Model the fold of this input.
Amino acid sequence: MMHLLDCPATPRQVQEMLEVYPMLVKIVVDIRRRLLAGGGEMHADCEALLLAEGSEQDDLWGANWYPAEQRIEFESLINIRPRLGNRSIECPCVWASLFRAMTSGAKSQPSRRICLGAFSEK
Done:
């Protein structure tokens, strides 16, 4: 199940995002709007959700989140952006922004936007 996040996911919500891949969650973060979509089969699924919510393509970056290890791999095909100077699935230039977007700026929203904070509540 995919979720649009902007502040700590409950354990149940993390489990729902782990339905496709039991060890990892495909995530895409809008680094400008500080939103994260997670839980799709592909990064492109999360990307499509954020685009439908008004995000701009240039603000979206993908990664894999391993909740059990609290580890992120900043790799995704959607990160390949030759016109922006990135020819790799990795993008070290946005790592800090991506991390900040996922771990700060929490705010209250309707239930369809769940909190991410420091990834998840214990």
